[in-house]
Write a structure and sequence with these properties.
21% strand; globular; alpha/beta; binds S-adenosylmethionine; Rossmann fold
């Protein structure tokens, strides 16, 4: 018998609460998995000395710290995040960095006394807004006219085998209804026409978009298949849905995940699975 998961359980939108705490609990693994994407985003952004930068949905603040290296002490970075737990962690990491500060706020509505900023960057922090049109209109007001935004957003799940194959394992044990592709969540901006429309309505220029394709280490670089399976079940929305289906379902799904991850494991590198991300640039 299969169990049907509530699609709302799979959205992962509660960043101010449970999702923020989950990200923090597994922060080294999450950040390790997406580290190369942060490097690609920052290399493309080419932040200059002296610039003032917002890091949207900064999480634990690693990209904020990297941006602050680029601005130097003459510039400054503000990391914005809705999760108080992640902002605490970001502040802890930035104690020695006077040109970085963090604010816990909803970027959809926040007002900043020291706006407008020169730039905005975001590694996977822009796809969770309940009303992205209103949120991006608000963000537009925080950036100088002509100021540049650089976003990393996930391409469609079908182009991300790491997600498709994980979902394939979960779906062989429980029914998981497909949510509306624009539902706020990691893949909400996979439809680039939708993103173009949001940006245009908010007053941004037509974006320049580059595909980033690589491999990511599930559970972080060097993680063993067992660690990757436990990480996926503990930290991702499918894990909760499988757990709710009962211990037998969970154990059997874990076996299958282990099999999947063992097939993708490379000694010294980890469980390497293909990904695809859009790197998007526009101006305010
Ligand atoms: C996938 S995590 C990425 C974290 C970080 N950018 C990184 O790459 O390590 C998404 C982040 O967006 C934040 N976020 C989601 N909705 C937000 C909102 N409305 N305002 C500010 N931050 C938000 C979450 O709290 C979370 O830290």
């Amino acid at each position: 018998m299969t169990t049907t998961a509530d699609p709302n359980e799979l959205k992962g939108e509660d960043w101010a609460g449970e999702m923020g705490i989950k990200w923090l609990t597994h922060i080294d693994r999450f950040e390790g998995m997406i580290a190369p994407i942060g490097e690609a985003l920052l290399a493309r952004a080419g932040i200059a000395r002296g610039e003032r930068v917002i890091d949207l949905g900064c999480g634990g603040g690693l990209t904020s710290l990297a941006a602050a290296e680029a601005t130097g002490p003459q510039g400054a970075v503000l990391g914005l995040d809705i999760s108080p737990d992640l902002i605490d962690e970001a502040r802890r990491r930035a104690e020695e960095h006077p040109n970085v500060r963090f604010l816990c706020a909803d970027a959809a509505t926040v007002t900043l006394e020291d706006a407008p900023y020169d730039r905005l960057i975001s590694r996977f922090g822009s796809m969770f807004f309940a009303d992205p049109y209103a949120a991006f209109a608000n963000l537009h007001g925080l950036i100088k006219p002509g100021g540049r935004i650089d976003l990393a957003i996930w391409a469609a799940p079908r182009d991300n085998p790491w997600m498709m194959e994980l979902m394939g394992v979960a779906r062989s044990h429980i029914d998981i209804p497909s949510p509306d592709p624009r539902t706020p969540g990691p893949f909400a901006f996979a439809d680039l026409d939708y993103v173009r429309d949001i940006l245009a309505q908010a007053g941004f220029s037509a974006p320049d978009i580059e595909a980033y394709q690589g491999e990511q280490a599930i559970g972080g670089a060097g993680a063993l298949p067992e660690d990757a399976a436990d990480f996926a079940l503990a930290s991702m929305a499918i894990g909760r849905a499988l757990a709710e289906a009962g211990p037998d379902v969970l154990a059997s799904a874990r076996d299958d995940l282990l099999g999947l991850f063992t097939r993708h494991y490379r000694d010294g590198e980890g469980v390497m699975m293909k990904n695809k991300v859009w790197l998007l640039t526009a101006t305010a």
